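Side project, low priority. Logging it here so it doesn't get lost.
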Amino acid sequence: MTGIPWSALAVNLAAAAAAAFAVMLTTFAVARAKGLHRLVDIAWGAAFTAVALTTYVLSAGYGDDGRRILVTVATAVWGLRLSVHIARRGRGHGEDPRYERLLARAPGSRDAYALRTVYLLQGGLVWLISLPVQVAAYVAVPLGASAVAGGLLWAVGFVVESVGDVQLARFKADPDNRGRVMDRGLWGWTRHPNYFGDFLVWWGLFLLACGTAQAAAVTVVSPLVMSYLLTYGSGKRLLENHLADRPGYAAYTARTSGFLPLPPRRRPHPEDTRP
């Protein structure tokens, strides 16, 4: 059988939604008790892991076992690393300024507004973006060229994201760098190696799901949505707006690629700016 078993997948879609929202609602309860909504960032990767594990259990007897295992492991490794990294990064810090600004605009109850605009929204996005993870588990075609390409793309993205996070953490840990802009290592080639890595990871997972044209058609919306979020949505745009007034950031953006890793642009010589 090479077609997608739609009835089984429908059950999986419902269960995956329940898993994603369960993680987000649990996180909301903890965050509300602590008064710290930045905890939702930790839940992002954990929710994808919950969806992947739920899908692996429910897809037993369907699809190709090699693809099921590969997609589950790839998603869980990515999600858990991200959650652990964000948890370590935020340890000892107060509320994220992004959430402070968001909740300051709450028309009524701050908690209800946070639940609606942060937690439930992110739960829905986890469900939508994880479509390749869910559909891949029900594709009965053996692993082929698209899976190899997807695995390689995922691996490159995972390394880029992980290395970028480690480099930034080490930079911030040095007191001499306080207030300075990170422009070393991967950060000298792209202003967002972590977001670019995410971009590659999710296009890689999409290719892992593409055992058939049908699966590709059903899941292509997911990497497109993730790409939009990373470049124009809540990722790159919001972070750059937050950093815009930092000393040296304008010069950094002038010489460093905004997303795709590229060699740093040459700093203009003073004589090059003459009218």
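Brief comment: Residues 6-34 form the longest helix (29 residues).
Revisit when time allows.
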